[in-house]
UniProtKB/TrEMBL annotation:
A Pfam family hit: FeoA
Source species of the chain: Mucilaginibacter xinganensis
Keywords, sorted A to Z: Iron
Domain of life according to the entry: Bacteria
Annotated Ferrous iron transporter FeoA-like domain residues: 1-71
Protein name from the UniProt record: Ferrous iron transport protein A
SUPFAM superfamilies recorded: C-terminal domain of transcriptional repressors
InterPro entries: Fe-transptr_FeoA-like, FeoA, FeoA_core_dom, Transcriptional_repressor_C
């Protein structure tokens, strides 16, 4: 399952990434393997997605969220 498939209020744990370049950017923002992430809300058309990770809110495009594989 990927982060883009979670609904608001659901929690997942980052397992790995599908895109090497994107993974570097996401890890710099706190999306590290083993870190729990919660989907806070989605924009009306589904893009972007607001998540809570490492104690702060982060907004990601649906494409970016789809590169994060969860446990």
């Amino acid at each position: 399952m990927t982060l883009s498939e979670l609904e608001p209020g659901e929690i997942g744990i980052v397992k790995e990434f599908t895109d090497l370049e994107m993974s570097v950017k996401l890890m710099e923002m706190g999306c590290l393997p083993g870190e729990p992430v919660t989907v806070s809300r989605r924009a009306p058309l589904g893009d972007p997605i607001s998540i809570k990770v490492s104690g702060y809110q982060l907004s990601l495009r649906k494409f970016e969220a789809s590169t994060i594989i969860l446990q």
